[in-house]
Every structure is written in structure tokens, then in C-alpha cells.
Specification:
16% strand, single chain, alpha/beta, 2 domains, 11-stranded mixed β-sheet, Isopropylmalate Dehydrogenase
Length: 332
Amino acid sequence: MKIILDGMGGDNAPEAICQGAIDAIEELSPEDDITIVGQEELLRQTLEKNGYTGDRITIVHAEDVITNDEAPVKAVRRKKNSSIVIGLNMVKEGIGDVFISAGSTGAILAGGTLILGRIKGVDRPTLATVYPVIGYEPSLLVDTGANAECKAKNLLEFGLMGSIYMEKVLDREDPSVGLVNNGTESHKGTTLTKEAYTLLKESDLNFIGNIETRELQNAVCDVIVTDGFTGNAIIKLTEGMGLMVLRELKKRFLTNTKSKLGALLLKDQLTGIKKEFNYVEYGGAPILGVKGALLKMHGSSDRTAVRMTILKAIPYVREDVVGTIEKAIREN
């Protein structure tokens, strides 16, 4: 398998990208390798600085970089020599099996749609993000920002694609699907959620009904379905609340000698909570519904996040998530 990695995308590129690739290559099968796309001399120097001398990480030169400040569609069309465009074209041409980037979300979504193309029958691709649930296995939240405004059939597609990814990559058999709403009753919500409720209920998915946001941290379902505006707000609120709680715990445990002793006794438990909540443990977010394996990493991804995303890409490709979605869409 050939993994294509955007060497220029993200706040910590190219350092964290190269470090994560070096860490991951030791855990991959001998037949797997990594190609980093970006400014060749800079990437070569970074790999050498981090002590890599092997031949399983190669470089493909890309002169340009698409930034977060650029209009996504215009940048993809104009910057043909950017790391994002070249990387996506490598997947389209069969040179690579999966493209991973921590760059501009808008550019990756636009590039995925324009270059790879949508799976036939998919109205809108979706950005699916692993949602941490303390003390339980994580859920998958779809959509988290690709589609601010949706139709009911889009939410049905999100549930279907999210279920396939959850089953194939996160190894969850017959994943349960819930629809975010302001109440659990079927008659609650907007016109969109009422129509989506009916479509999901009539589908072959393991649909459990409406769910309220306060239940998301109770592992109420495996796949959380909503529009991109709401999903993006949920994920950012959750991240912010998590960071606030961890910050306050640290501050209060350091108040005096007694609290410091308590913190020492609870060190393993507190470390476990922090690890479960940390997005880097779950890898990048797949963009589902395009004709190719595509993963978007957090913009601030460090070497651990890059490594974990590369490792998550393996079952994404080997379990043929894209092909399974194509087949499921045809049959629905």
C-alpha cells in the first residue's frame, strides 16, 4: 500500500509530518510505504535532521502550498503544483491508495470533490470525526463541517457512510445510528430533522431514533448524524469543554500539598481520562463519499496524531470502505 502524505499542511508542518511518518513506517508491513508531497529540499532536510536514512519514505516535489486564507475552490483550480492537488491526483491516478493532510479543510474538501469526484449516487460527501466518549468506545460524528445546510436525504447518506466506516475501520458490528435533535420524540425538531427521522427509520440502518446532545457523552449510539453546522459546533464545544475541565483539574490539584498528594495517587486514572479525550489518539477524519480514500487531520496535529492517522488509513484502504459505500449507495 502506498500512503500519500501532505508534507506542507498544518501548523506543525513539515516537522511533525516527517516525524509521524518516521514513527509509523516502523509499524507498517514491509509492502507498505509512504510518499510525502511538498517542497523537496525542505522535506529532505527535515527527514535527515530526524535521523531517517531508509528508503520506504520517498518525496514528491510540490512547489506550492494552499493556505487557510485562500478561497478553497479557486486555490485548488489555480495551484496545480500544490501539495494538496498533487497528492489527490496521485490517488486519482492509482499511484497512491490514500491521501492524508492537515492542511486547509476547505481545500481538501473541494479537491476531493473536484479531483477524485463524488461516488455516483452520493449527493454530498461528509466529514466524519471520531467523537471521544470517556469510559466507553468512541462514537463517530457526521457531518462535522463539510455541509452547513443539508437536505434530509443527505443525513440518510451520512448515516449510511458513517455506519460503513464505523464497521470496517473501527470494528463496530451493526453500529447504532442516532439523529441529533432537541428531543427524543419523533415529532420534535425542524422540518429537516423530521424528514430525516422518517428516512432513517425506513432504512436498513440500526437507527435508534432522536438523541439529545447531553446524551452524546453517555455512548448513546455509535454513529451520530447531524448537519455540518450543528456537528461542527458540537465538536468544537466538546473540545473546549474538555480542555477547560482538564485545565481546572490540573489547577486545583496543584492548590496545596494535600491536593498534590491526591493527584499523585490518581495519576494513572487522570492520565487515562486525558488520553481518552485526546483527538490525537483517534487519527484523522475521513471524508466519505468521494471516489478515493481521504483523511483530514487536525490543523495542529503533532507527530503522534500523524502516526495514528497513518495507521488508521490501513484498514480504511484494506477493508475497501470506498467500494463498500459505492455498493451500498447502489443498493439503496
